[in-house]
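ARCHIVE CARD
Drawer: 12
Card no.: 0347
Subject: one protein chain, sequence and derived structure
Cross-reference: see card 0346
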Amino acid sequence: MRNDVTDLAQDTKAGSVAELRDLDWPACLNARDLGGLPTAVAGRVREQALIRSDRLSRLTDDGVEAVRRLRPSRIIDLRTSTQCEREPSPFAAADMYCHMPLSMPLDPPNRQARLIDRYRSKLDLYPHRFAQAVAAVADAPPGPVVVHCQAGKDRTGLVIALVLKAVGVPDDAVAVDYAVSSARLGAYYTAKRADIEDPELLELVRELHSARADTMACTLTYLRDEFGGVEPYLRRGGLVERQLEALQERLVVRSPPSSTKAHV
């Protein structure tokens, strides 16, 4: 699987994938606007409606100001309570801040070697947590919604994938967006692995640091096979029809129908 995002986009069965928009949020590594991604019914994701990022505690003062200029209506922080205490969000005291941890202290440890197996286990165990995170997007006041965790890859990757699929973004476009994190976090993760000498541990950590398009594509296939798709999965977790409709309303821009001239 290639890491070049442009080539991946050109290879998708859905056709061209809209340009993925990086955001200049110093010093976040993995912040981007999901606007422009295609939806199944002649539409696209609205610009400045859904943003994904790594932890906002990274931000410099200029970065904090850049986020404020966006005027988000909600910032959804998926990190654990311990992570939030260790590296507090600069927006934690604001009304727009919403802490929704996907992992709890008493959760059983997940030591599976493959990242995709960890994703499957988390989805199996906690549909209600994922549905609550998606509901937080659906129920947010009007305005941009920011979703982030620590690196903006795994927890954020799963929640964003569920949201995008709920509004009809094709699997391959979701997978391409997920794989963007590989390039954004590559140097950061390489530095974190620099002192690992044990070959088996290094292989495991390299796998957990990965963000391959096929990992997300297989995760979406698993949701279809096991739950009938993303919408049934989210309904199982407690998401209701009103919230699914709200996601469509806030995130999807419909393309105008093409007009043709009558021939006489």
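Annotation on reverse: The first strand starts at residue 21 and ends at 22. The chain has one domain: 5-250.
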